[in-house]
Amino acid sequence: MALYADLHRHLGGSVVPRVLWRYFQRRDLELSERFPDYAEFEEFYTRSRNTLDEYLELHTLVESVQSAETLPYFIYRLIRGAYIFENLAYLELRYTPYLRTSEALSQTQRIDEMAKIVEIVGKTSRVPEYPMVTSQILCTHSRLPYAVNRAIVDLAAQMPEYVCAIDVAGGDSHYAERLDEFIQLYEYARSRGIKTTGHLYETPDGCYPELLPYLMRIGHGIQIPLRYPHLLKDVAARNQCLEVCPTTYLKTGTLDDLHHLKTVFDRCFDAGVDIAICTDNAGLHNVRLPFEYENLLTQDVIDFRQLQACQEAAFRHAFAWPHDQPPASLLTEALTR
Q1: Contact assessment for residue 5 and residue 276, using Cβ atoms and an 8 Å cutoff
Q2: For residues 26 and 20, what is the distance between their CA atoms, to the nearest angstrom?
Q3: Are 200 and 244 in contact (CB under 8 A)?
Q4: How far apart, in whole angstroms, are the C-alpha atoms of residue 92 and residue 278?
Q5: Which residues contact 42 (CB under 8 A, 6 or more apart)?
Q6: Distance between CA atoms of 280 and 165, rounded to whole angstroms?
Q7: Closest by alpha carbon to 243, among 292, 291, 186?
Q8: Closest CA to 178 of 132, 136, 141, 230
Q9: Which residues form the Adenosine deaminase domain (predicted)?
């Protein structure tokens, strides 16, 4: 039975390298010529980058081939792999719908097309042979105009059957010059009853305490226990959960050793702050959620008790999980009746 939940996975970074490369070979002559050999493509696609901004450039490669026509191809394979190989019972996919619309259209036309993208992602994520609860988090973006970001928030409110929350993404170092805009967007979202998370305190350049009160969960947030542990008391009081994505910090150059996360977990547990262990970009990393668990355990970052607590926290903080217990508890009850 599927047992796990992933609260932080990007649609753009979720395509595993083999699936993406095969798509190029079959359907995209330009990219197939650019990447004729799989081994070379895998090395390029999954290698570590020096900075978060450099790492995020890879998303544009996938976004360029994810459209209304091709999304069903990618999402079916994503769901199949998540269910069979990762034992996921629950998955939140996050992305910016505007970036899946055609650049040939005007801004107004692209905004109008976003609802179609959300519907396609929602419908194709529900695969009967791979029963899993799925929902979407729509990402506002640091490099998109305010009007587009506002339309993304409105879309989240209009399509609750598919969308469970909003996010802010695009590289946390780019928020500073538009911080007031993002505060306004989060205030607006909360006023409309939309749940919230946000890429924040991922890197030393992305620490904005002004945004913290508006978030129900914190995307990454590792710099809080590492650099600003005095904030943990308030994080705990707001019942905010950190979405920690271990492999990401090595791939982006944010951390040079996974063992730094031991401080993150220990300080959060001591302060009563929940952590959900997530994949972020499972395809870019060529890493699935059970491996994230195993890696943290074998490197003595966490112990089994802490792992179980994080797994339970993921369901407790899931925005669209329809039960009051995680699946393991539901299974235990069914088997002991």
Answers
A1: yes
A2: 10
A3: no
A4: 10
A5: 17, 18, 21, 286
A6: 16
A7: 292
A8: 141
A9: 5-320
| pLDDT score, position 2 | 61
Listed in sequence order, the residues at least 6 apart from 228 whose beta carbon sits closer than 8 Å to its beta carbon are 201, 207, 209
Sign of the alpha-carbon torsion through 200, 206, 212, 214 = negative
Tell me the Cα Rg of the chain. Answer: 19
- 138 with 95: CB under 8 angstroms? yes
- Amino acid making up residue 91: L
Distance CA 251, CA 278 (A): 14
pLDDT at 332: 64
Type of residue found at 42: E
Distance CA 311, CA 6 (A): 9
Per residue, the 3-state secondary structure of 114-149, as one string, reads HHHHHHHHHHHCCCCCCCCEEEEEEEEECCCCHHHH
For the ranges 64-68, 84-88, 301-305, which has the lowest average pLDDT?
Answer: 64-68
The token pair that represents 5 in the structure block = 């939940």
Write down the pLDDT at residue 172.
84
Q: Parallel, antiparallel, or unpaired: how do β-strands 88-95 and 275-277 relate?
A: unpaired
CA–centroid distance for 131 within its chain: 20
Asked whether the whole model's pTM tops 0.85, one would answer yes
**Residues above pLDDT 90, as percent of the chain:** 74
Distances (CA, A) of 247 to 60, 185, 266: 20, 30, 18
What residue has token string 């993150």? 264
Domains and their CATH numbers in the chain:
4-329 (3.20.20.140)
Q: What is the pLDDT of residue 335?
A: 52
Strand partners, 169: 141
